[in-house]
Amino acid sequence: MFLRLVYESFRRQKRRKALAGVAIVLGVGVATAMIAVATDVGDKMSRELRSYGANLLVTPQEDSLDLQIGGVDLKPPSDGTYLNEADLPKIRGTFWHHNIVGFSPMLPVNIEVAGKNVTLLGTYFSKKLAFGKEQFVTGVRITHPWWKVQGAWPDDESPDVLVGESLAAKLAVKPGDQIVAGGQSHRIVGILSTGSAEDNQLVASLGLAQQILGKPKAVRRLYVSALTKPEDALARRDPKTMNAELFDRWYCSPYVESIAYQLQEAIPHSHAEQIRQVAQNEGTVLSRIQGLMLLVTLAALLASALAVSAAMATAIFERRSEVGLMKALGAGNASIAALFFVEAALLALIGGLIGFAGGAVLARQMGRSIFDSQITIDPVLLPVILALAVIVTFAGSALAIRRAVKFDPVFALRGEV
Amino acid sequence: MTSQPIVATRRADGRHTSMFLRLLMRAAILRRGRAASALLAMIVAAAAATAMLNLYVDVQAKLRKEFRNYGANVVIVGKNGEALPKGALEVVNAALDGRGLAVPFAYVVARTVDGQSVVVSGTDFAQVRRLDSWWSVSNWPQAPQDALVGTRAMAVVSAQGKPFDLSFQGHTVHLNPAGSLSTGAGEESRIFISLSDFESWTEVQPSTIEIAVSGSPEEVNAAIDKLAQALPQTEVRPVRQIVEGEARVLGKTKATLLASASLIILTAALCVLSTLMGWVLDRRRDFAIMKALGASERLISSFFAAEAGALGAIGAVVGFIVGIGVAAWIGRVNFHAPVVPRLNVLPWVLLGSVSVALISAALPMSLLRRVQPAVILRGE
C-alpha cells in the first residue's frame, strides 16, 4: 500500500515532481561542477603559472660568481665549472618527473661580433631527448613561453642562430642574413624578443656554443620548470633535521624545495635552488585563486541547498489537502511523514544522479573551454554528492512536512488552505 | 479567512487603487508561508548574483595587487648601455604620479683584495624591499657603509662575515656585510650598497630603473608610452615574462569565475522560476474567484504581475545587501582586503530579479487563462 502510494504520487503529479526534481538536478549539477572545478583549479592554475618560466635553477656546485650586467657576460670563459649535458636526461628519472614541465640548459659564451663583445647563449630550443625508453621534448620553447621569434626557430642540430632584437637593431641585420660568430658564418633565422637580457645576445643551439667554447657537453646553468605545491611549514624545514618518516613525507610532496633536493641528487656536482621571484609568488597567487574558488564553491553549495529546500517546501505545501484526506482516512502522522520523506529521498536520488552526470559534463566543458584540458570527476564524489542531496532535500522538506502534518484535516478538506 | 465584509465596504468607497493594494497586502499576509518561501528563493538568487558580480568586477584589482609581488613589469635602461641622465628617477616618479614603484640600480664590476671580480650594485634599500618582496634577506642594511651581500658573493668576499674592502678604478671602499641575500638567481652573485655610498665611491650614475606599474595592461602600456616620452634618450620596455604571465593567469581566473558566476546565477534564477510558478499555480482558486466575480483579465494579470514585481524588487534589495556582505566576507577571508561594494550592480540585479519574477508569473497565468473558472472552483 505504501509503495503504491509513492508510485501513484509520482505517476499522477508529474508536473509538481518535475518542478522539484528540476531544482534538485540543477542544484546538484552546479554543486558537482563547482566542486570538480574547485578541486582541480589548483592543478590547472599551477600549469598556467608555468608561463612565468622556470622556478628552479641548477648550477655547478663549485661555481664562481656570475659577472653579468645588462645582458653582457663579463666572466672569462675559462672561469668556473660546468654541469655535464649527459646528466640532464636523468631529471626524467627523479621521483617527481611527472611534475617537471621542461628544462633548458644555458651556456653563455663571449664572442666578438663586428668588433663588439657579445654573448652567445647556447640552449635547447625544442630538443628531442631520451631517458631509457622514454622520448621527450624540452627546451626554451616550453620553459620560456614569453620568448617570441620573428622569423623561425632554429633547429637544435643546425648551426643557425637567433639575434636578440636590440642587438639586431644595432647590427642592422634581419632574418636570412649571415653573421660571423666564433670564426664561422651562421645564418640568422629569426629575431628574438624576450624583454630581458637575451635581447642583447645571440642565441644558438647548445652544441654550437660548446663547439665555440671548445668544451663538449658543458652546461653553465640549467633552468627547470616544475609544477609545485604551495609552500607550508613542512616545506620550509631543513631536511637534515627531519626524522625518517617526516623526511619521506617531505620528499614525496611536490614542494619546490624537495624537487630541488631531488634534482641535486640526479645531477652530480650540482646545486639546485628555487628561483624565489617565481617560486614564492606562485604559491601566493595559487593559494589566492584556490581560496577564491573554494569560497565561491561554498557560496554555490549554499545557494543550491537553499534553492532545493525552497522547491521541496513548495512541493509539499501544495499537497495539504492530500494530507487532510489521508488523515481523515485514519493515517497517522508518522506514516504521512514517512511517505513524504520517502518521496523526497527518491527525488533526491534520481535528481542527484542526473545532476551529477550533468555536472560532470559541465565541468568537462569548462575545463576544455578555459584550460584546454580535461577536468575529470572522481567517482568517489558520487556517493558524497548523493548523500548531500538527500540531506539537503530532507532538511528542506522537514519544516514543510511538520506543518503539513499538523494541519487540521477539516480545513484542508473544506479547501480553506 | 473572511475578508468579505471589509472588501464590501471598500468597494462601496469605490476606491479602485486602494482595493488593488489591499488585495496585494492581504495576499502577502494571509499566505505568508508561501510568500516567505518565494521571497527567500528570490533573496538567495539576488544575493548570489550580487556576490558573484561584485567578485567578478573586483577580483582583477585584488589579483593584480598579488601579481605586483612578482616585481618590476617595466624596465628603463640607457640606450646602448649608457648611464641614465641625471634626475631620471624624479622624472619617472613624476610621470608615474603614485601609480607605481620605481627603484634605481647602478652597476660596476669591482675587485676584491685578492683580485676577484664581483658585481656591485647601488640601490635604494627601502624601495627594493617593497619592489622585490621575494628577496630573502637575513638583515636589511641600515647604516652607511653597510652592504647586502648575495649568498654566493658572501663566500668570496667575506666568508667569516668580517668587513671587507672593494676597489674600483683605484678608489677603495670599506664595507660591512650587514646581511646576506638569497634569491635563487643572479642577485646572489652581487653585492648591494646604498646609492649614496655607491655614487660617492664610484661616481657612476644608475643605469637601470625597475618599475612596478600597477593597473590593467592598458594602463601599463599608457605608462610605458608616457615614460618613453618623458625620457626620450632611454629605452623603456615591458618585462615580458611578468606582463604575459600575469595576463594569462588573470584571464584564466576571470574565465573560471565568469563560468561559475553564470552557473550560479542561472541556477538561482531557475529555482526562483520554479518556486514562483508553484506559488502562482497554487492560487488558481483566487484567480477563479476573481474571474467569477467579474474581474477583467487585464486586472487579474496586472494583479499577479504587481505581486510578482513587488516580490522581485524586495528580494533584489534584500538580496543585494546580503550579497554585498558575502562578497565582502570572501574578500576579507581570501585577499585580506574587503571587496568594495559596487552600487552600479544594483540596477542590474533589480532588473534581473523583477524580470525573472514577471516571467515566472506570466507562464502559469497563460496556462490559467485558458481554463474556465468553474473547472478550477469545482476543484478539478
Describe the structure.
The complex is a heterodimer of chains A (417) and B (380). By secondary structure, chain A is an alpha+beta fold. Chain A has helices spanning 2-12, 14-49, 140-143, 165-171, 206-213, 233-236, 244-251, 256-266, 276-317, 320-328, 333-371, 381-406, 409-414; strands at 56-60, 68-69, 72-73, 83-84, 100-113, 116-123, 127-131, 134-138, 148-151, 161-164, 178-181, 184-193, 202-205, 218-219, 221-226, 270-274. Helices cover 51% and strands 20% of the residues of chain A. In chain A, a hairpin with a 2-residue loop joins strand 5 (100-113) and strand 6 (116-123). In chain A, the strands form 4 sheets. In chain A, strands 1, 5, 6, 9, 10, 11, 12, 13, 15 and 16 form a 10-stranded mixed beta sheet that branches. Chain A has 2 domains: 2-46 and 284-414, no CATH class; 55-274, no CATH class. The two termini of chain A are 27 Å apart. Chain B is of the alpha+beta class. Chain B folds into 2 domains: 31-65 and 249-377, no CATH class; 73-238, no CATH class. Chain B has 13 helices and 10 strands. Chain B has helices at residues 4-13, 16-30, 32-67, 88-96, 125-131, 151-157, 195-202, 217-230, 240-282, 284-292, 297-335, 346-369, 373-377; strands at 74-78, 100-112, 117-123, 136-137, 146-150, 164-168, 171-182, 190-194, 208-213, 234-238. In chain B, helix 4 (88-96) runs antiparallel to helix 8 (217-230). Chain B starts with a helix and ends with a helix. The model of chain B is unreliable at 1-14 (pLDDT under 50). The chains are: A alpha+beta (417), B alpha+beta (380).
